[in-house]
């Protein structure tokens, strides 16, 4: 297993917000964390990245390729971010720096991790912009985030997360702020990039229909605890918990079939 989370507990201000969460993501697997707002799924992702708020404490175990991440010094965690593990945040408007060009932000992690010059980093940034299907990549890298549409900003955020070819991508509700058409385009892009790169994916969402389009297995969270876990096809066909059944009733996305077999999540 590339990522193993065991009995994860996260506390903030004396409150337990994540309570004994456990799951594992195999090499190349597309795994989902799903639950309503406040269920602890985003906090769990931040714990994996070592980006919890200063007032938060984490207990339990998060192992990446057998190496324990909880308690790892910040300097060592910084080496893993971008290089081994990338993350796409929910709202690119806040994830992107408004006073830096898109190209400079895509190139930043490349320059940090690969120690290449500015000119070479710009060439790479253009290539990464093209890879995520940003239009006119040679010119769009010189634009600022406010000059891009919402879908283009999310593609730029994906390019930033994948620029150093991580082995694991964490995508935290990356389509929530997008309309249905752009949402489908971003999901197709993520699916294609994950397959092309052979990396693992942890996809976070509150929408079971969206999850079915991108993940093969998932854990359902409620109030910081895992209430159900298994193949996405099983969650769709025979949900065992009231939470999953409610998520299934509330699913609103139009199902997209990435592999043409009529069940994107059960492949």
Q: What do we call the CATH topology of the largest domain?
A: Rossmann fold
Gross CATH architecture of the largest domain: 3-Layer(aba) Sandwich
Oligomer: single chain
The amount of beta strand, in percent, is: 15-25%
Instruction: Count up the domains.
Output: 2
- Note the main sheet: 6 strands, mixed
What are the segments in which pLDDT stays under 50 over at least 5 consecutive residues? 253-257, 260-267
Question: Helix amount, in percent?
Answer: 25-40%
CATH H level of the largest domain: which superfamily?
A: P-loop containing nucleotide triphosphate hydrolases
Domain ABC transporter: 3-248
Keywords: ATP-binding, Cell membrane, Membrane, Nucleotide-binding, Transport
Membrane topology: Peripheral membrane protein
Subcellular location: Cell membrane
């Amino acid at each position: 297993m590339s990522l193993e989370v065991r009995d994860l507990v996260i506390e903030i201000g004396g409150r337990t917000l994540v309570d004994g969460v456990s799951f594992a993501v195999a090499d190349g697997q597309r795994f989902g964390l799903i639950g309503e707002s406040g269920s602890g799924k985003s906090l769990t992702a931040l714990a994996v990245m070592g980006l919890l708020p200063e007032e938060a404490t984490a207990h339990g175990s998060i192992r990446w390729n057998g190496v324990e991440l909880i308690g790892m010094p910040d300097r060592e965690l910084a080496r893993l971010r971008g290089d081994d593990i990338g993350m796409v945040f929910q709202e690119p408007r806040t994830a992107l720096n408004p006073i830096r060009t898109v190209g400079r932000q895509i190139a930043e992690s490349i320059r940090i991790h690969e120690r290449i010059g500015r000119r070479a980093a710009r060439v790479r940034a253009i290539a990464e912009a093209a890879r995520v299907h940003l239009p006119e990549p040679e010119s769009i890298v010189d634009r600022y985030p406010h000059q891009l549409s919402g879908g283009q900003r999310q593609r730029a955020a994906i390019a930033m997360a994948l620029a150093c070819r991580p082995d694991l991508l964490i995508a935290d509700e990356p389509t929530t702020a997008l309309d249905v058409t752009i949402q489908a385009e971003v999901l197709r892009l993520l699916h294609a990039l994950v397959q092309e790169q052979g990396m693992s994916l942890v996809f976070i969402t509150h929408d079971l229909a969206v999850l079915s389009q991108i993940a093969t297995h998932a854990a359902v969270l409620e109030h910081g605890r895992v209430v159900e876990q298994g193949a996405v096809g099983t969650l769709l066909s025979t949900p065992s918990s009231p939470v999953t059944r409610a998520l299934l009733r509330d699913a609103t996305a139009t199902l997209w079939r990435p592999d043409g077999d009529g069940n994107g999540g059960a492949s």
